[in-house]
Amino acid sequence: MSRVAVLTPHVTQHDAVCNDVFGMYESLTRRGFDARVYAADWNLSETELKVWPVSRIKNFLQSPNDTLIYHHSMGWETGCDLLAALNCTRIIKYHNVTPPNFFSGWSEEYESVCRAGREQLRAIATSECDAYLSASQYNMSELVAEGAPESKSFVVPPFNRTDHLFTKEPDFEIIDRYRDGQTNLLMVGSLVPNKGHVALLEAFAAYHHEYKPDSRLFLVGKEKANLTKYTSFLHELTAYLGLQASVIYTGEVSESELKSYYLLSDIFVTTSEHEGFCVPLVEAMAMKVPIVAFSSSAIPETISKAGLVWDERDPYLFAESIDTLINDESIRTRMSLLGKQRYEELFTADKIERQLLNAVGELL
Amino acid sequence: MTIQSDATELDVEQLMLRIRESAEKRKPADSHSRFQPWARAYPRLLGRSQSHLETDIPDLKLSPDFKPNKDNHYHVNDLLRFHDTHFVRNAYQAILKRDPDDQGFKGYLERLRSGDRNKIDILASLRFSAEGRQRKVRVDGLGLRATVRLISRVPFLGYFLQLLIGVLRIPASTRERRRFESYSLVRAQELADHLNRMVGIMRELRHLVSELPNRIAEQQELTSLLDQRQQELTALLDQRQRQLTALVTQQRQQLTELLEEQQQKLGLQEDKLLVHGDSLAELSESVRAQRMLGEDLNTRLLDDKQDLTAHSAEIHRLAQAVEHVRTQVTIQQARTTSLIKAIDQSPMATPQQSDTVRKEDSHMLDALYVSLEDHFRGDRSEIKKRLEVYLPYFEEAGITADILDVGCGRGEWIELLREKGVHARGVDANRSMVEQCQASGLKVTCENAIDHFRSLPDSALNAVTSFHVIEHLGFKQLVELIDEIVRTLRPGGLLVLETPNPENIIVGSCNFYFDPTHCHPLPIQTTSFLLEAKGFSDLKVIGLHTLESSRIQGKSELINRFNEFFYGPMDYAVLARRN
Predict the structure, then answer these.
(1) Chain B residues within 8 A (CB-CB) of chain A?
(2) Which among B16, B45, B48 is the nearest to A105, CB-wise?
(3) B14 Cα to chain A: minimum distance (Å)
(4) ipTM for the complex shown
(5) Buried b / exposed e across B171-193, counting CB within 10 Å, b at 16+?
(6) Separation in Å, CA of B5 to nearest CA in chain A
(7) What is the mean pLDDT of each run of 10 residues along chain B (579 residues)?
């Protein structure tokens, strides 16, 4: 059976790229391929999946019939070198790279990693790989603009662990703590500047102060160690807007805890300014939480008609949207059903596997 | 409220339009300014604060900048735009092309401020001074106005002229006054702004200054801490250096010693190598000898191979001969059968003759049965191996003699027991088999089993065994046999019966009939019932010869049952004790 190496720079838990890497690995293994995950470093505790050090990849991929699937999401010299050096079938999975200017003034490290990732994008797009997979149409158009051939470009949504959410038992302590009749709003995503938290806090301030004081906002996501400047700015802004008691910063959470927040929340709100796909939207759709979002990057494409997607970030527009959904159960229910339908049509593991095999099945 | 479950009915675009409308209605008129303070706070929150101290504050200017024209040509209004000191300075720059001297500057300023002279007077005085004429700067519009001013200074006439000009200039003056008014207001505003900015700076400065003692204290503390650290570090460094030097010395010494030791060892190794060299030569000699031996063997092997080919040809020839004999035997058997039949039917035959003939007839198929058994039952060693399963029961019961094997066949069981030092006898009706047994020195009688039992006294035996016999008997014969066994076994004596297991579907439906002399299969329940009914107890049933290798892998109920029915025990044995 032919060998497939799935390569990514870092493997950590609760990360969309890594979930795609492992989803891909599991799907290929199920299909009978001899698949392995390779990375420069990894940090796993909950899962027992094996990760191989990238230095060993040349021992694995020996024949031209073997396949390398490289997941590009940040600047990584080793990955690009391997892409050029290996004589086998080569496939790119592009998750998008956050434009560096989002980090300007917040973290030089992130800025430079993202800049490198953006610079390498051109090299990758023109490296004559056998296929270019993109998490979204938005990503694909970036790749094509950088020179990737359109005939070899395909959209394959990222594998996600949403189905695990269905089976996990929720953390009842969290549910008991926040199930108190207040309206709960939710945003899931690590605390990084491109996620547009400022506009979200403004919108929530408008809703909280002028529509419904009995409301709170969960910001579920990791506070990154080298972005403390941004994190403390958000806390300061929260206090400035008089929301310190109503905005809950949860930090990184387990899958059980995440499930609790989805179960607790009435509406998922995001004003993110840059997303290559946005997996939390899929989770919200699957968990039947209606979505109100700002139409940036790949977000409108992921949601389509299954949510309220605005072209502007007027706090009152968002507040009014939230208010309308909260007050009209019928609309809320129908909207969540639209989301569930969309999830089942496109984003379950089976559906994604089918899209993957349609795109590259013949190459493997 | 009824909830409609059909999601497709939701018109999202329509909904968004509605939301936008109500948001516009709901949005307070001052929504922009409500968010304004947050927006204004961002720079501070962002940590990119725009401190007054960092921004450049332009110098406060109450009059526009003045640059002397290169072509030495001005309009008088160019110069009249300026006021007070600026005016005097700029007038000097323009007309005399130099900075004012101290005396002139002060004099003009004083007269200007006292109202004694106006700007035209001063410009004229500069332009028409000796120095001014020398510079030849052209000032349009100055001549006429200066002349008027000059005339107006003539006593009496000048007064009326001034009066006339004053009256004529009333509208212009009014306009000028208004212009001046607004000008001064703007300037005042600029001044106020400037002052405010300065106050801002002062405030920040005051804050900074008030912070200073703290900062200084912090710095001092830090400095003293640093000093302390430095001292500690220096001390540590010294210490480390000393340690390092000591270590290096020690290491060097050890290395030298090691080197010497290694050199010595090297010398020893060299010696050994020399010795090894010698033995190597010997070895290669012996290898050569071995090789020659090998070649010799090879030749011999070739010879043997030729011999073997010859032998196998011989064997083939013999097999053909055996085949020929077998055909002959079959033909003779047929002839003999018809002869025996003829004798039996002959009215001449005496009863005694008939009996002999009949007995002989029953042995007609003996040879055929032997080859059938050979074909289906397996070879001798294999059968002995299978029978080993019973040995522990005999050991446990302590039986070492007086064992009778009924239908002993080729005598594998008796032979196995003999090897273990246990005495057993056998009885079989097949003459060919009995001959084979007797040839191997086994105590076997050729007789019908029941007849043989009848010849034995009561309780004469410790054990009776019978492997694959009972399925050859009709029901009546079987009961008769069991009755005889009960009689001849001593109480507590052991009976072992082995027979095919019809619970295995393949055995029950097919394999059982490989042997055409088999009567009917005996299910475990039937055998057990018969034995218990006839006076046996402690029954133990053992499943035998399971086809483990053919079993289907897996754990489902279906697979389990399938394996049980198709690949379960092919034979079973009943062990029982006589009451």
Answers:
(1) 1-10, 12, 15-16, 18-20, 22-23, 26-28, 31, 35, 38, 41-42, 45-48
(2) B48
(3) 11
(4) 0.87
(5) eeeeeeeeeeeeeeeeeeeeeee
(6) 6
(7) 52 91 82 54 47 50 69 83 84 86 88 83 86 85 82 81 85 86 84 86 87 87 90 92 92 92 88 85 90 91 90 89 81 73 66 66 69 71 89 90 91 92 91 86 90 91 93 92 93 94 92 88 94 92 88 88 91 93
